[in-house]
Design goal:
The chain is an alpha+beta fold. The chain has a single domain, classed as PAS domain (Beta-Lactamase, 2-Layer Sandwich). 38% of the residues lie in helices and 28% in strands. It is built from six helices and six strands. Strands 1, 2, 3, 4, 5 and 6 form a six-stranded antiparallel beta sheet that branches. The longest helix has 20 residues. The radius of gyration is 15 Å and the shape is globular. The mean pLDDT is 91. It comes from Methylocystis iwaonis. InterPro entries: MEKHLA. This is MEKHLA domain-containing protein. Pfam families: MEKHLA (PF08670).
Length: 160
């Protein structure tokens, strides 16, 4: 993992450690389950989340939300570097004709706390299309309980 962290700009890994805790705590609060085994402190949990064998991706609370986290599987699937990811509006992960359906699920998650069973087609930075299945989308809050965006996780996708 240290090689990966060395590629990150100053401060990003530290932000991702804190954000990983927000992701894990918010997921548990929304669903009543743990996204992955917990323990070992924030740094160890952030390392495990980054290396998890499933996608975890999130965006912030901006009017046009910008991606702010993607674990290794998410980065590989969307074919982005960490710096590309954190500069990408979340809406651009879906093709234009499919963005309305995506927005409806995000709104449902905002209203209900989380949505499970979401599926849809996404597009990587290079234009590679893939279908995701059985995704969970949840609202993310910071350690003070303030809204911090939304996140999604899924372990099933098929390239189209």
């Amino acid at each position: 993992m240290s090689t990966f962290r060395a590629e990150l700009p100053p401060g990003l890994w530290e932000r991702w450690i804190s954000h990983s805790a927000d992701l894990l705590n918010s997921y548990h609060k929304a669903t009543g389950r743990d996204l992955m085994p917990r323990g070992g402190g924030a740094h160890a949990e952030a390392e495990r989340l980054l290396a998890a064998p499933f996608v975890v991706v999130s965006h912030g609370t901006e009017a046009d939300p910008i991606l702010n986290y993607g674990n290794r599987v998410a980065l590989a699937l969307w074919e982005m570097s960490p710096m590309q990811l954190i500069a990408t509006p979340s809406r651009l992960t879906a093709e234009a004709p499919l963005r309305e359906a995506r927005e409806q699920f995000l709104a449902q998650a905002a209203r209900d706390g989380f949505v499970h069973g979401y599926e849809g087609v996404r597009i990587s930075a290079t234009g590679r299309r893939f279908h995701i299945a059985n995704a969970t989308i949840w609202n993310v809050t910071d350690n003070a309980g303030h809204p911090a965006g939304q996140a999604a996780t899924f372990a099933r996708w098929t390239f189209l």
